[in-house]
Design a protein that fits this description.
- With 37 residues, the protein is mainly α.
- The protein has one domain.
- Helix content is 59%, strand content 0%.
- It is globular and about 25 Å long.
- The mean pLDDT is 77.
Length: 37
């Protein structure tokens, strides 16, 4: 299981309201270079 960093948590807290899970996932991939399959 991925352990979220404080930076990631702050990003999620700011971004999540009003966005779908898929949008959040795509934003994470762009921002943190995640390879989520």
């Amino acid at each position: 299981m991925h352990k979220y960093t404080d930076l990631e948590k702050a990003f999620m807290r700011d971004f999540i309201p009003g966005h779908t899970y898929k949008e959040i996932q795509e934003a994470f991939i762009k921002k943190f270079n995640w390879d989520i399959t």
